[in-house]
Amino acid sequence: MIALNRRKALILGGAAAASALAAPAIAQNKTIKVGALRFTSHSGSFVAVEKGYFADSGLDVELVFFEAAQPMAVAIASGDIDYAVTAISGGLISLAQKGAIKVIGGAASEEDGIDGQIILASDAAYQAGVTDCSKLDGKSWGLTQTGSSFHYVGAKIAEKEGISLSYKPLQKVGAVIGALKSGQIDAWNIVPHIAKPLIASGAVHDIGRVQTYLPGYQLTTVFTSTKNASEEKETTQAFLNAFSKGAHDYNAAMIDAEGGDAAVDAMIDMIHKYVYADQPREKAAPSIVNGTMRINEGAALNVASVEDQLEWFKSEGLVDASVSMGDLVDASYVETIG
User: Fold this and answer.
1) Where are the beta strands (DSSP E) in the chain?
2) Locate the SsuA/THI5-like domain: which residues (predicted)?
């Protein structure tokens, strides 16, 4: 087998997936609800709405916003939403084992040379000597929930540094930010569009990058109910087709700079409707640019990263030891890498 670096694999995988997804898949103006966080890394869905890609695929999409990953997984399982993009969590894995959920594609991922998630320390911790991750031994690490992606990342950093962390679940991203700024927790990891303004304010400090510890990390995935994956194939293909087009346009403008400044400005205008929408455009724009992470072309899925996440959740007793990749992933819709 010929070895591919991550960038080439994503390109080739995206091309193959785009070809597969390009097959006719008309969902007859079906109404679906799509879960998302107000993060720049969820822009594949936002762009697909704004450019009419969902509508062109026969889908009438309502975006439903959440403040953490696990409630989104519950909403998929209950049928309150139909498709979503978020990080893998213990709750999602447990629901997958029960036959309620399937991961069907990849979204944002860490890529060498592109700013990804940043590891932050509170000012109090930084002033006390926590200037890099090796100094975090015995310190507190912010989470939304136990078994969230923040838990996984913190544990992987601790493992590689040979240290221990105290995990503090605070339920919502906003609550974690408040705790970090006030020094109630010592450290946290978060996407760059949130991290960089916090760093610029002086309230927190940059002490590292997640990609140093987890190269190629599949930060977010596309998932749906098992019923949709197995019985609503036309709709699921239509959703992935439109999402992939949105992701392609986002990458082309924001990462590959194919359209120059005009394309970046147009993309910021679209994303601003969903990310930092409560701020004036001129204030929101730098944060949106700062949040740029590649969204996998063709929704290609890094199965090696997903499997590593699954094995960690199992090793920590956060999910049942018998859950398998087959329980979690339906790999029939997109190209897989890793």
Assistant:
1) 30-36, 59-65, 83-86, 101-106, 118-122, 139-143, 165-169, 187-190, 204-209, 221-225, 301-302, 336-337
2) 40-249
